[in-house]
C-alpha cells in the first residue's frame, strides 16, 4: 500500500513540477522586441490629413467639346467633276543619285545581284 501511495505522490509531484516549469519558462521566454513593437504600434496615431490636400495636385476634369458632324457641300457633283479634271500636283523632282555598286551596275539589278551572290567563307571555316 505504501508503494502505491509513493507512486501516486511522485506522479503528482512530477505533474506539479511540469506545470511550474512551463509557466516559469513561458514568463522567461517573453520577447522584449515584440512587446516593444506592439506597444509602439498601439500608441501610433496617423497624422491628420487635410481635407483640401488634393488642391493644386489634381487637375479638374472637363469633358472635351462635342465634335461637329461633317457637312456635305451643296454642289457636290460640280466639286467632284472639278477634282477629276484637275492635274495631280507633282512635287519638284530632285535628281536621284543612283547607287553605283562595285561592278558599276545600278538600281534594282545591283541589289538582286548582291542577294544572289555567294557569301565568301573564311579559310578556317568550311
From TrEMBL:
Pfam families: ATP_sub_h. InterPro entries: ATP_synth_F0_suH. PANTHER family: ATP SYNTHASE SUBUNIT H, MITOCHONDRIAL (PTHR28207). This is Uncharacterized protein. It comes from Somion occarium. The lineage of its organism: Eukaryota, Fungi, Dikarya, Basidiomycota, Agaricomycotina.
Amino acid at each position: 500500500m505504501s508503494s502505491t501511495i509513493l507512486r501516486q505522490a511522485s506522479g503528482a509531484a512530477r505533474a506539479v513540477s511540469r506545470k511550474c516549469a512551463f509557466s516559469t519558462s513561458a514568463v522567461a521566454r517573453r520577447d522584449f522586441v515584440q512587446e516593444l513593437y506592439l506597444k509602439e504600434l498601439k500608441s501610433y496615431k496617423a497624422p491628420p490629413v487635410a481635407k483640401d490636400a488634393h488642391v493644386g495636385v489634381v487637375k479638374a476634369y472637363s469633358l472635351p467639346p462635342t465634335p461637329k458632324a461633317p457637312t456635305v457641300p451643296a454642289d457636290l457633283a460640280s466639286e467632284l467633276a472639278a477634282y477629276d479634271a484637275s492635274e495631280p500636283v507633282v512635287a519638284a523632282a530632285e535628281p536621284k543619285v543612283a547607287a553605283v555598286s562595285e561592278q558599276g551596275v545600278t538600281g534594282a539589278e545591283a541589289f538582286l545581284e548582291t542577294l544572289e551572290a555567294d557569301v565568301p567563307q573564311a579559310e578556317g571555316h568550311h
